[in-house]
């Protein structure tokens, strides 16, 4: 067993374990953290495939941003697991059907003779100074530029839609406009009243 | 089965190099705390620590010994496993990111192609330690601190990432050594000049990322006691402290490498060397301390506004400016 193979099995074992714990952990926060572990280990596996740009982006985007927000939400929710698991047996047949279908589809692709090791041999390893990032960038911005831009536009539409759906102007919120705060002048806030410091004694009161 | 002695040798050699990096870093952290107390002391017309050793120079050692001897209390309501995992998740990325930081053109632990991306990916992991620590403590203050910290770090990471995009456009490389080599030729070649708005954004976002004053609402001692690490004591607390300072030095080092020419000398008649790297990093660290002594803490909504509505638009506009200028005859000014 070579060093790379040993590393692969080590990472794969962690990945499978973490994946299983995501769906079996009773505590939703634990489940989310196991999902983080799964992403990180998957990034390690991609690194073994010499896809260092994709591996680092996986950590940067999914672990560094998406899962943080995910964890954020999961922590704030009061999730009752027993209530969530109530319908388990009702949904089992449907879920079983879907997963069997998934396994069949995968077997069709991976098991066919078009994908065996003899058809797709190990790709030649690249030299140490080969830049994965540069190659990927070149492909994305030349051969696949339309597909890439289309995907970007679709994402933008999704962002705008999500904001438009959730944005609501509340009348009762005490909204602060910093520009207005900066522009404010003394006379807008403060009124100086000229008055005497001491009241004149009223006649007749001083005798007491 | 024969043992692959070459591989064993490589592993041992790498471990020795890691130690040679981490030990000076930890010493740097210890004496950064001393420098902070002395400098802020002077700024506030106080003396600062002066009891342990000559001029208080042994104060950080005494503090470290004190923290090591103290008991680590685990609250009875805490989630024990995650409570212990929290500090580890904070310190591990803070140290791992140092693997790709070059000190001179040859002195670097791992000279990888995508060094800049690696640093960004690894430092973005640090927020997990804060969130996990805050949640596992099972305390309201700790939880509030964790929430604030998570929102703040996620917001400022975007501006920070965009600032780095400007740097990699100018240097046309993700390798930190190449980025520094792109600034060769004296003071006027440093990226701080063509990328000045990005430099400012990066520096301020760096202060926010490390939860330092004036962006330290995650700790906010007047509101939520000590934020996410309120339940930690002894060495577990010290680990958070170490990570914060290690991250500070990391941000200072990255600022030096990307905008201030790293180990390059500011004038061509003096030789380049690690001395310049140290001097520039120390200067940026001094700025961190100066900020802390000068500015009052930002309000939470002001932090969010600054991150999303000021910094992100500035960086996007400047990236477009840099990109457009590179297509003109004046493009050489931006390389």
What do you see in this structure?
The complex is a heterodimer of chains A (208) and B (335). Chain A is an all-alpha fold and 208 residues long. Chain A has helices at residues 3-24, 28-48, 52-76, 81-84, 88-111, 132-141, 145-166, 178-183, 186-189. In chain A, helix 1 runs antiparallel to helix 2 and helix 2 (28-48) packs antiparallel against helix 3 (52-76). The longest helix of chain A is centred in the N-terminal third of the chain and has 25 residues, at 52-76. The radius of gyration of chain A is 32 Å and the shape is elongated. Chain B has helices spanning 5-43, 59-69, 80-96, 115-123, 126-136, 140-171, 176-181, 196-209, 221-224, 234-259, 274-294, 300-326. Chain B contains twelve helices and no strands. The model of chain B has no long low-confidence stretch (mean pLDDT 85). Classes of the chains: A mainly alpha (208), B mainly alpha (335). The interface between A and B is medium-sized, with 27 and 29 residues.
Brief overview, please?
Chain A is mostly helical and 208 residues long.
Question: What's the layout of helices and strands?
Answer:
The complex is a heterodimer of chains A (208) and B (335).
Chain A: H1 3-24, H2 28-48, H3 52-76, H4 81-84, H5 88-111, H6 132-141, H7 145-166, H8 178-183, H9 186-189
Chain B: H1 5-43, H2 59-69, H3 80-96, H4 115-123, H5 126-136, H6 140-171, H7 176-181, H8 196-209, H9 221-224, H10 234-259, H11 274-294, H12 300-326
Order of helices and strands of chain A: HHHHHHHHH
What is the number of beta strands of chain A? 0
Dominant shape of chain A: elongated
Topology order of chain B in helix (H) and strand (E) letters = HHHHHHHHHHHH
State which percent range the strand residues of chain A make up.
under 5%
Question: What class, by secondary structure content of chain B?
Answer: mainly alpha
Gross geometry of chain B: globular
- Helical residues, percent of chain A: 55-70%
